[in-house]
Amino acid sequence: PALARLAPLYRVLTPGADANALAGTLQAQAHVSGRWPALTTQGQLDASALRVGPLAVQKAAGRWSLGSSANAPVDAQLSLTQAALISGGAPGPSIDTAQWQLSGTGRAHTLELRADSKARPPAWVDTMQPAPAPAADTAHTLALVQVSGGLVDLPSAPLAGWRGTLTQLDLRSSAGAAGAAPLLHSANVAIEALWAGGPPRVSVQPGRAELLGGAVRWSRMAWTAAATEKGFAQIEAEAEVEPLRVAPLLARAQPDFGWGGDLTLNAHLKLRSAPSFQADVVVERASGDLTVTDEDGTRTLGLTDLRLGLAAADGVWNFTQGLAGSAVGVSAGAVVVRTAPEATWPSADAPIQGVLELRVADIGTWGTWVPPGWRLGGALHASASINGRFGAPEYTGQAEGTQLAVRNFLQGVNVSDGDVVVKLQGTTARIEHFTAKAGSGRLSVTGDASLGAAPKAVLQLDADKFQLLGRVDRRIVASGTGRLQLDASTLAFDGRFGVDEGLIDFSQSDAPSLSDDVEVVRVKAPANAASAPEPAAALNPSRAVALDLHVGLGDKLRVRGHGLDTRLGGELHITSPGGKLSVDGTVRAVDGTYAAYGQKLAIDKGLIVFNGPIENPRLDIEATRPNLDIRVGVAVSGNASDPRVRLFSEPELSDIDKLSWLVMGRASDGLGRTDTALLQRAALALLAGDGESLTDKVTKAIGLDDIGVRQQTDGDVQQTVVSLGKQLSRRWYVGYERGLNATTGNFQLIYRIAQRFTLRAQSGEDSSLDFIWTWRWR
Predict the structure, then answer these.
(1) Are 690 and 653 in contact (CB under 8 A)?
(2) Does residue 444 sit in helix, strand or coil?
(3) What tens digit of pLDDT does each residue of 165-185 get?
(4) At what angle do helices 673-687 and 694-701 cross, to 10 degrees?
(5) Do 745 and 761 contact (CB within 8 A), yes or no?
(6) 449 with 412: CB under 8 angstroms?
(7) How far apart are CA 556 and CA 476, in angstroms?
(8) Would you say 199 and 226 are in contact if contact means Cβ atoms under 8 Å apart?
(9) What's the rounded Cα separation, in Å, for the pair 628 and 622?
(10) What backbone phi and psi angles, to 5 degrees, belong to 645?
(11) How many CB atoms are closer than 10 A to CB 255?
(12) Which of 2, 579, 588, 726 is the most buried (most CB within 10 A)?
């Protein structure tokens, strides 16, 4: 009733077992009768919460009735519930239910095994299934094995082995067995296993198996144990893969890529492991071609030849590969490896010799393999001889590229006229020459790389007015130098770059949007799938990243959008301490304006100070309304994650006066109904948030900065005056105003000499030239 009490004895019999290696309850009854060696036995057992070594079973039940002679009746059954292997203290994939049944006699019996599990096969198996993978909460893995046969005698040894037939073998992954595509299926395969009369041996007669959407036929499979302790077990196999359509497999592995076509592959294998290892494996194109469908239509790869081969005999291994097609170019190679005759795979220090040739007349045809929107161009030719060791090959030759180009018009990338020459010498590669153009600038790269057991690359980049982005609303031209170092554990980049000119305009949306009647339905990830990492500034690559990059913004970088229109200046220092992106420096707004509260404000001070994490810089911004007798505006302070926005004035005024001066250009004393409407317009601007208010949209559409309505008293007559204006610069302003009842209007040209001195010229119904000096007292 408590197997755990026997755990100390179990640990004595099984050194290294943990303290919980024996647990649960077990009840068994057995009856043995007869005269040795002819015995019969019957019994039954029941267990719950059973743990024996690495095997854990929630519930087990079995019964048996069998005899020791070959002709005695045999009847045995065993059922398991929630069985799993425990590794590292945690249970692995479990079998929900399993039933094992044996009936007949020793010379003629049948065996059946059924198992059901909710454990999913590896993710790559799902991509190979002809049918879509079922949902995670309904998927089951089902197994069925049926065998019939019996014990056999040899002239030299009774009961020397077993001979029978694998009647059925099925392994499926589905919510139900009916209609599910098999992961593995085979039937009516003859098997013979002999353990007496010579070395143990197993042979499988010719048969066929369906595997992951394909089919394999074999004419022979056999295994023979080593005749002596120093000998080698002998394996013999000869099989071929029936013509396999490649496009459905690629389409399931990459459903968004647009694979299609009728390409089929053939493959055959011959294998013999002793006394010396011999192998002949060939995978080659049988017929057809591959196609790719994207936004530009359907294109074919134009494959005319595809072959991968492996031939091994007497310790000489020959690897060959060949690929030819109108879209992919021509590639061919051959490698010879010499090792011990009995080795089943070349060791890492085995010497190699070979050649490799690649020629592509138009790399643009490789656009099939790059992400959507990107385009390639140019020609490529590479040839090399291969020497060294199997684990660390050495290449001697040269790779050349001419008229190379990379384009993505949606992102504004257009690099052209690329030329590259790479020399390969043993375990090193050197970039003799690499140049490319973008815009009116040029990029050059030089460097070396080590391709041995410890690969490493050091590259020097030099940019001269190189156009990184060339879109209408996103343009960056930069110059500078940088050094990139890459090895197995570290990626380091240091340099100094400056922005020669640029424009970032985010006033329009960044990408087209779908229509309202389009609904995007995404496949939910399995419940047990690892959740996606949360976005953060932390760099989490497979290599340690070390950045030391200085970026100068220059004096021609302009940012425009959401009411902001300014040049940016300053310098940033980008590093990566502890694998986290860090930025130090200050970005300044120069000669900028900001549309707020229905007005275009001048940015007197605009500082964004970075001191570590990039996502939370410190803000110090002041924007004022120009051409006023007092200084009034908006101040933004604090951090980007928690900004504080307030109105300010010099001298200090009440909040209503600040808003009145900001919107109306005068104090709040005697505000009329129309003035109140303008203040309401400012409130609407506040409610608009990051977007534009309706009035702002109208004003912007007709190319003006100000549209105003005010009440004006001329003697005893009060009339409504409409004014329009455009701020030409910080000091120049042009406007037009007209009364609704007047026959003509007035044009105004205002030049702001200083804060309290203004020159105004007016022409129209009243023509005048005014020099205005303002003195304010409280």
Answers:
(1) no
(2) strand
(3) 999 998 887 644 444 557 889
(4) 100
(5) no
(6) no
(7) 10
(8) yes
(9) 16
(10) -115, 130
(11) 12
(12) 588
SS3 assignment, position 734: strand
Q: Which residues pair with 553 in a beta bridge?
A: none
**H or E stretch at 609:** strand 599-613
Alpha-carbon dihedral sign for residues 164, 165, 167, 168: positive
Number of neighbours of residue 356 by Cβ within 10 angstroms: 19
pTM comes to 0.61
Helix 673-687 to helix 655-664 angle, to the nearest 10 degrees? Answer: 100
Question: In terms of C-beta density within 10 A (0-12 exposed, 13-18 middle, 19 or more buried), how is residue 556 classed?
Answer: middle
Report whether pLDDT(686) > 50: no
Whether residue 511 has pLDDT greater than 50: no
- Compute the distance between CA of residue 30 and CA of residue 41 in angstroms, rounded to an integer: 7
CB 310 within 8 A of CB 318: yes
**Pairing mode, if any, of strands 214-224 and 264-272?**
unpaired
Between CA 97 and CA 101, with CA 100 as vertex, the angle to 5 degrees is: 140
Instruction: Give alpha helix (H) positions in 310-384.
Output: none
- What torsion do the CA atoms of 230, 232, 233, 238 make, to the nearest 10 degrees? -170
β-partners of residue 718 are 713
How far is residue 553's CA from residue 640's CA, in Å, rounded to a whole number? 20
User: What is the H or E stretch that residue 450 is in?
Assistant: strand 441-450
Contact 151, 162 (CB under 8 A): yes
Amino acid, res. 759? L
Nearest Cα residue to 386 out of 344, 348, 357, 345: 357
Nearest residue to 392 via CA among 454, 453, 456, 449: 453
Give the model's pLDDT for residue 743.
Answer: 64
DSSP 3-state assignment of 473? Answer: coil
Q: What is the CA radius of gyration of the chain?
A: 41
- Beta-bridge partner residues of 559: 504, 566
506 closest CA partner among 459, 566, 551: 566
Mean pLDDT of 239-245: 92
Residue in this structure with the two tokens 């009243």, named with its chain if needed? 766
Determine if residue 213 is left, alpha or beta; phi over 0 gives left, psi from -120 to 50 gives alpha, anything else beta. Answer: left
Residue at token pair 């502890």: 578
Distance CA 337, CA 344 (A): 13
